[in-house]
Write a structure and sequence with these properties.
With 97 residues, the protein is of the alpha+beta class. The chain has four helices and four strands. Helix content is 33%, strand content 22%.
């Protein structure tokens, strides 16, 4: 089984694009009534957005997946690239760790 990093490099090498893509991560705290706004913001991103805590990883563009998370935990949002609009929206749920 290949790691995600290896798979990503292989995909890029087949298209002859060799550049580093930075994975952005933000710690957030959500309430169940904020899930709709969060998923709506994640859906507007062109890149894949994941949200996780411990070993649970879900697609942040899936409202059912996000609703299945434990909202008592601090969640981590991860995505590839730089999305200034999404980062601005994430600030309202940001937590200091």
């Amino acid at each position: 089984m290949r790691s995600l990093k290896t798979f990503f490099y292989v995909c890029l090498s087949h298209t002859y694009v060799k550049r580093k893509v930075k994975v952005m991560q933000h710690k957030i705290k959500l309430r169940p009534d904020e899930v709709k706004d969060f998923v709506s913001a994640a859906t507007r991103c062109d890149c894949d957005v994941d949200i996780f805590y411990n070993s649970f990883i879900v697609d942040a563009k899936s409202i059912i997946g996000v609703l299945g998370l434990n909202f008592n935990q601090i969640l981590t949002v991860a995505y590839n690239g730089y999305e200034p609009d999404f980062e601005r929206i994430l600030r309202k749920w940001a937590v200091a760790v």
